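Weekly sync, protein design subgroup
Attendees: M.S., D.O., the rotation student, P.L. (late)

Item 1: inverse folding check
M.S. brought a backbone from last month's batch and wanted to see whether the design step gives back something sensible before we order anything. D.O. pointed out we never logged the input encoding, so this time it goes straight into the notes. Structure tokens as presented (124 positions):
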């Protein structure tokens, strides 16, 4: 499945659903973004079970600002509506594969438990 461009309006719906959604924040003037694009595109072909989305930070400046994207490319991974990874910098193909494996291997019950504990400890 090819990558899909997301607008600010589509973003929330795209990342809040079941399963895994990767989001690549990029811009046309960014060299590393251009180098990362074919790697990202290739991974999208190899993992049809994952949604590969892209956000053009020039076109969607409010979204990028709202997510505090300060460097591009930035890659975010969401699983079942939870942000589980966020990092700036273009990844080589091997690192992207490892990230995908890592997100697939997450114990989401454990992740939700950690989030709940984290939120509880910050309320006192």
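Designed sequence read out in the meeting:
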């Amino acid at each position: 499945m090819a990558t899909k461009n997301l607008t600010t309006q589509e973003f929330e719906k795209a990342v809040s659903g079941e399963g895994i959604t990767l989001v690549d924040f990029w811009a046309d003037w960014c060299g590393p973004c251009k180098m990362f694009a074919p790697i990202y595109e290739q991974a999208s072909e190899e993992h049809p079970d994952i949604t590969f989305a892209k956000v053009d930070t020039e076109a969607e400046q409010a979204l990028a600002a709202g997510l505090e994207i300060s460097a591009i490319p930035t890659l975010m991974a969401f699983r079942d509506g939870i942000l589980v990874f966020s990092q700036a910098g273009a990844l080589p193909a091997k690192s992207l594969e490892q990230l995908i494996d890592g997100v697939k291997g997450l114990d989401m019950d454990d992740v939700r438990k950690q989030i709940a504990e984290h939120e509880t400890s910050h309320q006192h």
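Discussion: The first strand starts at residue 4 and ends at 5. The helical segments are 8-16, 31-46, 61-66, 93-104, 108-121.
Action: P.L. to compare against the previous round before Friday.
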